[in-house]
Specification:
It is built from seven helices and eight strands; from the N terminus they run H-H-H-E-E-E-H-E-E-H-H-E-H-E-E. It is α+β, with helices and mostly antiparallel strands and about 240 residues long.
Length: about 240
């Protein structure tokens, strides 16, 4: 048995100690995002607890957003609360400046043919119809990030009525539409603003920009969104803590 799953008894009710053991296991990667945890009978045997206690413990972690119950399939690990792309953009060049407080504006949305990158992400042929939503993020009156989101038509059929000004969008998808993002990859590169991008971001054509691509996926590696974002390089800051 992994050390994280050893029951550590406290004065709390047993289900809370079981929940704490399960949470430790999640933190330590015993089960990864999108994986199914052991069945209730298996957890009963592992912890020497009743079925009711196990269900209470799992219910606690479901309420906290760690786990998702799916009828007939089991209980699955949810991914982290994905940090938004705003984490790359800072308005703190002056001492005491407030942190970024973005406002989202929806500029356009349409059904369009998938280009090569979108098609590769969704596993469809180039030219297949996909949904597109364009948003502009601003800090007060200053635009700093242009976001183009693409969705497979199956996902779009569920989320098409979402409030795309909502921030963060994935929380809305999870809480209202039952669309769970459990994994994502991001790629960053530098570029030069096109005339269209410059006009929307309030910069000059060919000014430096940062381009960010994200491939977001749900359970069983199912694509949820392909995102292209273009941000002002003068507001960009990359931060990583290495240990």
């Amino acid at each position: 048995m992994p050390e994280a799953l050893r029951l550590r008894r406290t004065a709390a009710p047993l289900y809370r100690d079981v929940a704490a053991a399960l949470e430790r296991a999640l933190h330590e990667g015993v089960w990864k995002a999108g994986e199914r945890i052991p069945t209730e009978p298996e957890l009963e045997h592992r912890f020497g607890a009743s079925r009711g206690t196990i269900r209470q413990a799992i219910g606690e972690l479901v309420r906290q957003g760690w786990l998702l119950r799916q009828a007939g399939r089991g209980t699955f690990v949810l991914g982290p609360s994905f940090e938004s792309l705003e984490r790359f953009f800072r308005y703190e060049s002056l001492a005491g400046a407030p942190p970024l407080a973005p406002i989202n504006r929806v500029l356009d949305q349409a059904i369009m043919p998938a280009d090569a990158d979108v098609a590769a992400c969704f596993g469809v042929a180039v030219g297949t119809e996909v949904a597109w939503v364009r948003r502009l993020r601003c800090n007060g009156s200053e635009p700093f990030l242009l976001v183009d989101s693409f969705f497979p038509m199956g996902v779009w059929g569920v989320v098409r009525d979402a409030d795309f000004t909502h921030h963060p969008l994935y929380n809305l998808f999870k809480n209202v539409y039952g669309q769970f993002v459990v994994g994502a990859e991001e790629f960053l590169r530098a570029g030069l603003a096109t005339e269209e991008e410059a006009g929307l971001l309030g910069i000059a054509e060919k000014d430096p920009v940062i381009r960010i691509e994200r491939d977001a996926r749900s359970f069983e590696d199912r694509p949820i969104e392909f995102r292209r974002a273009t941000g002002r390089a003068d507001r960009f800051r990359y931060h990583a803590r290495l240990r």
